[in-house]
């Protein structure tokens, strides 16, 4: 069966994306370069459900982009929960902030422009969950930072860990983003401080539990 047909089948048998997220995803792809970086319908529903399952109170997100994933994470939070989402590209703010502030979960999202690697620890917050979806070249540094600001038993979700199949394609041996993802995957696979599993969903999603 063709992957496009299978994807349509999957999307037609899960919870609806919702009008606001649909419009955000559409605007992301029309108005921004690399619009595919937004999580999208399937991954967005998975993020919401993972939050509902793990029940974190405070979530750290590294890489806001258009705000799609931040909204999905916030949808899964109980009352009083908070997502602190960092975007290093300040040119993204004019697009993203209105979409976050116009969402029904705006009160659960703190949108911060800055480098999470240096700025997140300065918040003085202990997080229950983290979603890493920033610069692939600094995934290891981001991961190590997250470990320092998270509680034992917390969960880290790392996106794009199969990198469109480039992780096993020799044609990308000199691509810095691919090298960053490969190094991260190797780093995680050898790390005794965590449990980990890679889901071959969309572009690869690694679930990591801190021991």
Q: State Rg.
A: 16 Å
- Tell me the span between the first and last alpha carbons: 40 Å
Low-confidence stretches: none
What's the order of the H and E elements?
Answer: HHHEHEHEHEHEHEE
Describe the structure in your own words:
The protein has 211 residues and is α/β, with parallel strands linked by helices. It contains eight helices and seven strands; from the N terminus they run αααβαβαβαβαβαββ. The protein has helices spanning 3-11, 19-31, 40-54, 68-75, 93-101, 116-119, 139-148, 176-189; strands at 58-62, 82-87, 109-113, 127-132, 150-159, 194-199, 205-210. The protein has a seven-stranded mixed sheet with strand order 3-2-1-4-5-7-6, sandwiched between helices.
């Amino acid at each position: 069966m063709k992957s496009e047909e299978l994807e349509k089948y999957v999307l037609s048998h899960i919870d609806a994306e919702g009008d606001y997220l649909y419009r955000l995803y559409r605007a992301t792809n029309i108005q921004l370069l690399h619009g595919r970086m937004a999580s999208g319908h399937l991954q967005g529903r998975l993020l919401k459900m993972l939050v509902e399952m793990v029940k974190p109170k405070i979530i750290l997100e590294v890489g806001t982009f258009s705000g799609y994933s931040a909204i999905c994470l916030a949808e899964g939070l109980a009352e009083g929960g908070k997502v602190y989402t960092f975007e290093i590209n300040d040119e993204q703010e004019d697009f993203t902030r209105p979409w976050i502030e116009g969402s029904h979960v705006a009160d659960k999202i703190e949108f911060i422009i800055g480098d999470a690697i240096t700025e997140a620890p300065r918040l003085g917050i202990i997080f229950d969950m983290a979603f890493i979806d920033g610069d692939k070249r600094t995934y290891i540094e981001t991961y190590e930072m997250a470990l320092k600001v998270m509680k034992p038993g917390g969960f880290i979700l790392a996106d794009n860990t199969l990198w469109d199949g480039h992780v096993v394609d020799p044609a990308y041996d000199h691509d810095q983003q691919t090298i960053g993802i490969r190094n991260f995957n190797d780093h995680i696979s050898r790390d005794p401080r965590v449990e980990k599993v890679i889901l071959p969903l969309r572009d690869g999603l690694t679930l990591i539990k801190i021991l």
